[in-house]
Amino acid sequence: MPTLHLQSAKIERDRFRGETITNGKFLNCDFSGADLTDTQFIGCFFYDEATQLGCSFNRAVLKDASFKSCDLSMADFRNTQALGLEIRESKVQGADFRGANFMNMISARTYFCSAFIIKSNLSYANFSKVVLEKCELWENRWNGANVLGASFLGSDLSGGEFNHFDWRSATFNHCNLTGAELGELDIRLVDLEGVQLDSQQIVGLIDRLGIILVNDA
């Protein structure tokens, strides 16, 4: 099957639902409102370097969709239905996730989230007010990401890179942060209740406070 290459195309709602697309190129394409439930994209490009524009997935259904080794830089994921979305080993710099819904509502007050965003570059992505609780979010680069009002309660953020990152702007209680580069995290200003840290991280955080940790062995 020849490699799929589309440019400035409007994607019909059910065109790729449940399909597996490998090494495709989608330049300046409009996936808004498309149903991509169970669709797999492997090694695909959604970013046009010439115009520096990403694709629009605004209001798309991304339930259990998967992007592996893809370039999703500058993509518009606003208002997507994204329960179970997988993004793995991909470029996602500057992508906009505002309004993306990773939740399954069981009742008016009960819900759970599901997302697998792993080993990806999320630098300068916008997660403002997004709820990603108890999700698999490890080994990502979060440098400069906007997480104002977001909730990562109980998620696995281990091995991440958090430079130029405002820890005060989101909720991180009960997260796994072991092995992460914590940037300018100030334990005096951020609620770290239930957060998992390793001993090397703790030494670094205490050192910033001017406290000398003495080995009493």
Folded structure, characterized:
InterPro entries: 5peptide_repeat (IPR001646), Pentapeptide-BTB/POZ_domain (IPR051082). This is Qnr family pentapeptide repeat protein. It holds the Pfam family Pentapeptide. With 217 residues, the protein is mainly beta. It contains one helix and eleven strands, in the order E-E-E-E-E-E-E-E-E-E-E-H. The chain has one helix at 199-208; strands at 5-7, 20-22, 25-27, 40-42, 47-48, 53-54, 66-68, 85-88, 103-105, 111-113, 115-118. The strands form four sheets. It has a five-stranded parallel β-sheet, with no helix packed on it. It has a two-stranded parallel ribbon with strand order 1-3. The protein has a two-stranded antiparallel sheet with strand order 5-6. A hairpin with a 4-residue loop joins strand 5 and strand 6. The longest helix has 10 residues, at 199-208. It is elongated, with a radius of gyration of 19 Å. The mean pLDDT is 95.
Attribute tags:
single chain, 217 residues, mainly beta, five-stranded parallel beta sheet, two-stranded parallel sheet, 1 helix
Q: DSSP strand (E) fraction?
A: 15-25%
Describe the strand arrangement of the main beta sheet, using strand numbers.
Answer: 2-4-7-8-11
Number of helices: 1
Main pleated sheet: 5 strands, parallel
Q: Average the pLDDT over all residues and give the rounded result.
A: 95
Overall morphology: elongated
According to DSSP, the number of beta strands is: 11
SSE order in H/E notation? EEEEEEEEEEEH
Q: How helix-rich are the residues, as a percent range?
A: under 10%
Rounded radius of gyration (Å): 19 Å
Q: For the terminal residues, how far apart are their CA atoms?
A: 66 Å
| Helix/sheet category | mainly beta
List low-pLDDT spans: none
